[in-house]
Predict the structure.
Amino acid sequence: MSSAASDTERPLASPMFRALWIATIVSNVGTWMHDIGAGWLMTSLSPDPLMVALVQAATTFPMFALALPAGALADIVDRRRLLIAAQLFGLIGAAGLAIITFAGFTTAWVLLVFTAVIAVGAAFSAPAFQAIVPELVQPKALQQAVALNSLGVNIARAIGPALGGVIIAASGPAAVFAVNAVSVVGVIIVLVRWHRVAPERHLPAEHMIGAMRAGLHYAMRAPELQVVLIRSVGFFLFASGLWALLPIIARRDLGLGPAGYGGLLTFMGLGAIGGAILMPRLRGRMGANAITLAASLLLASAMAALSLVTGFWSASGTLFIAGLAWIAMMASLNGGAQATSPGWIKARALAIYLLVFQGSMAAGSALWGSVASRIGVPSTLLAASALLAVAGVILAWRYPFDRTSTLDLSPSAHWPTPLVDGDVEHDSGPVLVTIEYRIAPDRVSDFFVA
């Protein structure tokens, strides 16, 4: 009995989740290798800092621009088929870039276009990938499944940059682009073999614009989801300073090359792996609000310490701690977004979360990069870390996180099928729904509070 109960709380006990998790790690390793290869190739194609920065923009902007449409589409069509199509689209982009680079025809703008094409595939995959997690694991295993997905991303972050640097040194950027294309194949195979049981629909599918509007309306009227979004802005807007300034710290302040920079990212990934291993124990001893507050303060401390380091190993140790704090916050926010969105709108709600995440990271990166050009990198890191700590404390007090893990958003079927006066079109025409509540006189105040 205890063994069966424990299986319901272990995501890896689900064969499909386990297979997809492993395949996704391999694919993410390829993605990190592409990022290293694209950035390195651009420094050879164009020394202009703007062009180098546009590589990151080409990677993140499609996610920001397409998150909500992708989420709406994932709630309308079959998520498995959407994922297969999006992965094939990204595979074609990665393979095309590899072929053109091997042939020697890649220019700066060709690199940006193909990087954007690959990112479009990732943008249409992300909401659907997150939305299918509750279909693959039991409800009790959802939080741990989210943490495992974050762990997988950071395993890839630990392996991809280092492996990409070795392959670039041995064979050039075209080789890592080819490996990235091959890494997608495993995900496609797992998705093709998945016999998904689609939820039963009693109404026709929503229209695209209406689905997007419904997603925005839900986000505007769901207090628990709003807590997740507000806490996301308060974290990523300031934490983005670390990601924005780390390449400059590695190259200018620490005097490292691309291999050294990859090594720093590897240590951050190792810290995230350690954090993911600790998360189940932390959840048993601390509430979600305490974990997010501790993660904000720990990352702020690591950012402040990074402004003072002078060597590779001290920076690596600092980034190990930063990786631990990063995954604690990411797992909490991702899990909160999952828990506060019902199944019928889950992909759209998660897409809005991704939009806030990517938008805050993009805006914060531009902000801290601009500030660093005026007051210097160390002072900027200190300012960002101080604001992160202040925001973490204020938001943990004003918008506590604990209630998000106790919500039950499963459909209620405690009332009978309503009586309809006449024929009603499923997706058009005026409809009046009346609900009558009978409240005990001594519970009226509680009713209004609820």
